Amino acid sequence: MFEIFKQKTKKNILALGTSFVLSACTVGPNFEPDHMKLPENWKEHKATPEEIERTNKEMISWWSLFHDPLLDQLVKRAVEGNYNLQIAGQRILAAKAMRDRYTAEWYPQGEVVTSGGVDRFSTSLGNWPIAGYPSTYPFMAYGPNVTWQLDVFGRIRREVEAQEDVIGQNIEARRSVMVTILAELASDYMLLRSTQLQLKIADDNIRVAQDNVNLVSKLYQKGVGNTLQIAQANSELHAQLGAREPLKTRISQVTHAIDVLLGQMPGTSEDMLKIAGPMPVVPELPATLPTIVVANRPDIRQAERRYAEAMARIGVAVSNMYPNFTLPLSFQPQFSAFHQFFNASSFFWQFILSISTPIMQGGKLTAEVQSAQAEAEATRLAYRQTILTAFKEVEDAFAAWNDDEEREKFLRRSSEDSQLASDRAKKLYKAGLTGYLEVLTTQRTALSAQNAHVLSRLERLQDAVRLYSALGAGWRGIALTSTELPINTTEQNILAKAFTQ
């Protein structure tokens, strides 16, 4: 009779648990993307369909548009060796592992318990000792304990959903790191080439200044010049020599920065990078639409994933207000002597449905829901702010591109005209038709104009880098690195091959 009752009880509990699982519902709001009204075109540049098609192809490997093989090589090495990029990859692995940890809560959780020792009861109670029962006795027990939490109201589902969004955030964070690294590397490389060109201009001006010293000295020996002109020529030569040193320092510092971006010790690539080369060419103006930028920029995509995670956290907070259903299963033989090890009377087991319902929490659970709702609204607003910031960066980059293009044209003409004026002043001085002060003035003007032109060319190159970075270019086409932790979990536990932990 008792066995029949036990079998019916187990069937009823199983049926009750199954019905709860089948009727389970997920509480809390579901995530819906926030739709922000976007302009149809950029204010600074209205893109044509042809430009959009071209740019979409170029954004995958935009650095190749500068037609510099060394820059292409540096990008490849940075993608493979940059430590910040590897750190971001490990955070993705960590987030995926946490997702698996929350997913495991869907399944029964079991452990094997073994205990033994001596129990002693208090003998100071009024009715103790009871005849035939000693106050101390040996105790041993072993067996599995299994707990299965039924996800009736979706708490576990919401936790897993939130962690999936955390994975998405870490993926987008790695892509943001990729965009930043590419922009820094390209910008440093442009600075290196422009500084090397400035150093060449400085060397040319030192030779000119030395020629002037020689010329003034010869004229003085012929009785045409004077000591003032010799002093002025020497002063200009020493000034040119002094201006060269900061340029050498900047070249060293930039090469060190590039090495760090490549994930290697500063100075490793110094011999290769210090070989002067031509400045890269400025590519065509990239153009796209606002909607494409929203879909492409990693920071915007990451902000959206934060919003999705916050919405899932609301569901977790709401589910805590509902009953919690648990199926505990215990099977533990308990005995005092080894000869009772397999006796039927030693076996103890328990299989019940446990339901815990919060009733008196003093407003704690309601406050948690309200906090989660406020946090979700904050992340939604942060998502919108991220879009505004991104659009500002793109519009600024378009404006700088157009303005710096015109500025570079004017400064190029200024450099050419000032060099012509310097050459003419030197010829007139040799002929005795003008003073040495005119020669110095025109040479200084020519040097200043040449440096200004080089800096304007650098600004145009960096405008291109900034615009591609603002468009979120560079991460598409580069797969996520597949890295593994150095610890092999199967070697840490002899039971790992038999049980998944």
TrEMBL record:
Compartment annotation: Cell membrane
Keywords: Lipoprotein, Membrane, Palmitate, Transmembrane, Transmembrane beta strand
Coiled coil residues, start to end: none
Entry membrane topology: Lipid-anchor
Domain of life: Bacteria
Keyword field contains Transmembrane: yes
Gene Ontology cellular component list: plasma membrane
GO molecular function, one term: efflux transmembrane transporter activity
Family, as annotated: Belongs to the outer membrane factor (OMF) (TC 1.B.17) family.
Protein name as annotated: Outer membrane protein OprM
Gene of this entry: oprM_2
